[in-house]
Amino acid sequence: MKLGLSTYTLTWSVGVPGYERPLQPLSAVALVLLTRSRGLELLQIADNLPLHAMNDEELRELKRTADGQGVELEVGTRGTDPHLLLRYLAIAELLGSSLVRTLITTSDLAAAEAQIREALPAFEAANVMLAIENHGLHTTGQLVQLFQNLNHAHVGCCMDTVNSFGALEAPDTVIAALSPYLVNLHIKDFDIRRVDHMMGFTILGTPAGAGRLDIPRLKAVIEANGKAGVNAILELWTPYEGSVEETIATETRWMEESIAYLRSVHFIEEDLRYATGNVERESI
Fold first, then answer.
1. CA 7/CA 15 separation, integer angstroms
2. Which of 96, 189, 208, 275 could bridge to 258 as Cys pair (CB 3.0-4.6 Å)?
């Protein structure tokens, strides 16, 4: 299993709408360099840094940089409109991405299914996977039914370990139900705490390995379902710390702690140059 970063690993460094902009927002090219500097070879660029806003020359420069650094790119968007999916399929082909990650933004699953069916022949022809993320709008049962209805080799699940709390489902339920359809994994750890007046709970992000997600069990379930070869993407729900720059410092520390933990439980194909300390790592 290959471990990678995402634009949702360093969300505050990219920029969060409604909050002050970072002093130096991370670009897609900068994220490639940062990924390589951490000894990783995979980067997923999602909808918070929209690739369709880049022109073809900018995309080609991104591809050249990624190739030069030995970093595999994955592309992501949100929505199931066939025109959008086909636009991202073209971007995936240009960048050499083996998949397009998306999520369903309508409660009408029948309508989403029809849209996905319209786009799937092109994905099959290009041999690119459409990875549909559980995002809390639908239950795992509904998503399982969707995958069974589609019954197509070029569509599967981008399984996020925490998102389905929005559908009142805990990670154990999500992992058991969706692992058979897994084509991409988002590792996101969490904690659940009572509020100070004791009347209610909050769900908070944590570094990987510091929260309640049983990551070794997650790995075991994935392997038991024959999905050990899927790519795993680290995502973080880093809380706002009062200023964007302080929050960026926290999410950077969380990224480092998470990578170290995931290495310790072998959620990574280690590059021996980094394992032996032969390559100098850059700071963010």
1. 10
2. 208
Q: How many residues in the chain? A: 284
Tell me the three state secondary structure of residue 234.
Answer: strand
Query: 47-71 burial, b for 16+ CB within 10 Å, e for fewer?
Result: bbbebeebeeeebeebbebbeebeb
- For 59, 78, 174, 203, 256, the CA distances from 206, given in Å and listed in that order, are 33, 24, 19, 10, 12
Contacts of 75 (CB under 8 A, 6+ apart): 44, 45, 51, 88, 91, 92, 95, 97, 99, 100, 101
Tokens of 265: 């439980």
Q: Are 7 and 45 in contact (CB under 8 A)?
A: yes
pTM: 0.94
Answer whether 94's CB lies under 8 Å from 66's CB: no
Q: Which two tokens stand for residue 36?
A: 């390589």
Please give the helix or strand (H or E) that residue 99 lies within, else none: strand 99-103
CATH top-level class of 3-275: alpha beta
* Cα-based angle 123, 42, 206 (whole degrees, multiple of 5): 110
10-residue averages of pLDDT along the chain (284 residues) = 97 97 97 98 98 97 98 98 98 98 97 98 98 97 98 98 96 98 98 96 97 97 97 98 97 98 83 45 44
Closest CA to 185 of 162, 212, 206, 165: 162
Integer distance in angstroms from the first to the last C-alpha of the chain? 25
Q: Could you give the CA distance from residue 74 to residue 203 in angstroms, rounded to a whole number?
A: 28
Domain ranges of the chain: 3-275
| Token output for 33 | 């360099």
